[in-house]
Amino acid sequence: MKLTILGGGGFRVPLVYGALLGDHAEGRVTHVVLHDVDAARLTAVARVLAEQAAGDPDAPEVSCTTDLDDALRGADFIFSAIRVGGLEGRAADERVALAEGVLGQETVGAGGIAYGLRTVPVAVDIARRVARLAPDAWVINFTNPAGLVTEAMSRHLGDRVIGICDSPVGLGRRIATVLGANPREAWIDYVGLNHLGWVRGLRVAGRDELPRLLADPELLGSFEEGKLFGVDWLQSLGAIPNEYLHYYYFNRETVRAYQQAEKTRGAFLHDQQDRFYEEMKHPQAAALTAWDRTRAEREATYMAENRDAAGAGERDADDLSGGYEKVALALMRAIARDERTTLILNVRNRGTLSVLDADAVIEVPCLVDANGAHPVAVAPLPGHATGLVCSVKAVEREVLSAAESGARTTAVKAFALHPLVDSVNVARRLVEGYTSVHPGLAYLK
To answer: Is 383 exposed, middle or buried (0-12, 13-18, 19+ CB in 10 A)?
Structure first.
C-alpha cells in the first residue's frame, strides 16, 4: 500500500513514519512518498526516517519528489500536512494581528483566517489533482485550519477526505486517566468544530463518569484543562472544552500574554526548525537525535503563553508525545483492513448537528470502516456553544467564498464577523496588513 505525504519535508513527518514501523500485517503501508516544494527539507527528513528504520527489514520504502502529480499517482492514502507560506507566514500572521490588538494564532481568530485565505486555494488545487490522478485514494487532512481546509477539499472529494486532529484525543485521554478509566474503553461524547469543541460526557461500561469529575474540585483541577480554564469555569460550563477555547474564554489575557512574549509561537518555531535544518546540512550529524531533541522542546513549549496567563505551569510528561500520527494510522487501518473503530474526526455533518447544513464539516466521534467515516448522532449543543459554533462556521464560509471569488470585500467580511475581531475597521486594516506581507493573497481584489 502506498502512502503519499504532502508536506513531506515538514518537521512532524517522522511521527507518522514511526507509527508505521512495526506494522507487519497484510495491507500495511509498504511505500511512503514524501512530497514537498523544498528539496533540502525533504532530504533532511528522509535522513531522519532512514535512521528510524535502521534494523527493520520490513520498514516502508521511502522516496522523495518535488513533483506533486508524480507523488499523487497510484497513492492509496494521501496525508496532507502542508504549510502554505511556511513558518515565516505564520510569524507574519501573528505580528499583523497583534499589532491590531487581536489574536494571531494560526487556527483561531485573525491569524486563522489569514492562514485559511492562503491555504484554501492550494488545498483546492490538490483536491482537484487527487480527483483526477488518484480518484480511489483517501485523503487524510492535517493541514490547518483543519476543519476549514477539509471542508474546502470535500467540495471536490466528497467523503474521501477526512480531517484529523490530536487535540480531542489528548483531551479524552486526560479525562479518562484522571477518572481512573482506560482511555481505550471510554466513549467520549465530543462535539463541535476543529479547535472549537466540548467533551460533554465520558462513558465507561455505559455509565457517564463526567459528572463525578465535575463535582470533585480537586480532581477537576489536577489535569491540563482544569489548570488552564479553572475549576469554577468548568463547573459553570458543565463540560470540558477543547484547549483552544481558552483563546475565546480568556481572550484579553491571552492577547496580552502574546504581546508581551519575547517571540510569537510562529517566530519561535521558525528559528527552532531553522537550526534543525541547518544542522542537517552536515553529513555526519545524528539526524534522529537532533530531530527528537527539537521535537521535545517544541512539545514542551506548546501553548506556553496560555498556560502562563492561566498560571497552569508546565505541561505534564504524558502530553509531550503527540498523538495525531496514531489517529492517522488507526484511520488508515480501519479503512484499508475494515478494522472497525471509533475516532473523533472532521467530517461532513450530514444532519448530525441540526443547526448546521449537511455539508458543513464538524468534529465528532465517527464509526470508521472500509467505507469511510460515519458521524455518530449527538445531542444538541447548549445555546452558548451553538452560538459560537454557528458564528465561526459562518466565518469559515466567508473565507471559502473569498478564496473562490477573490473578492476583497468578502475577506473583510470574514474578519469582521469573527467573534475575536471587534471592529469592521480593524478587519479592513487586517486585510491591508495581510495582503501587504503575503504574496499568496494577491488574488484578493
So the answer is: exposed
CA distance from start to end of the chain: 44
Q: Is 323 exposed, middle or buried (0-12, 13-18, 19+ CB in 10 A)?
A: middle
Beta bridge partners of residue 201, listed in sequence order: 189
pLDDT digits (tens, 9 = 90+) for 213-253: 999 999 999 999 999 999 999 999 999 999 999 999 999 99
CB 196 within 8 A of CB 388: yes
The model scores a pTM over 0.90: yes
331 three-state secondary structure: helix
pLDDT tens readout for residues 276-285: 999 999 999 9
Pairwise CA distance, residues 36 & 48, whole Å? 16
Q: Quote the mean pLDDT of the chain.
A: 94
Q: Tell me 25's DSSP state.
A: S
CA distances from 57 to 21, 45, 54, 60 (A): 10, 20, 8, 9
Arithmetic mean of pLDDT, 131-157: 98
d(CA 54, CA 264): 37
**Looking at 69-136, which runs of residues are DSSP E strands?**
77-80
- 402: amino acid identity, one letter: A
Chain segment 24-37, per-residue pLDDT in tens:
777 899 999 999 99
Separation of alpha carbons 210 and 396, rounded Å: 31
Structural contact between residues 341 and 330, judged by C-beta atoms closer than 8 angstroms: yes
In the block, residue with C-alpha cell 485565505? 117
pLDDT score of 319: 58
Sign of the Cα torsion 123, 243, 353, 326 reads positive
Residue ranges of the alpha helices (H) in 222-339?
224-229, 231-237, 246-249, 251-260, 265-279, 287-300, 304-310, 324-337
Query: With contact defined as beta carbons under 8 Å apart, do 326 and 119 qualify?
Result: no
Q: What's the grid cell of residue 211?
A: 459528572
Q: Which amino acid is at 318?
A: D
From the list 116, 91, 123, the residue with the least C-alpha distance to 104 is 91
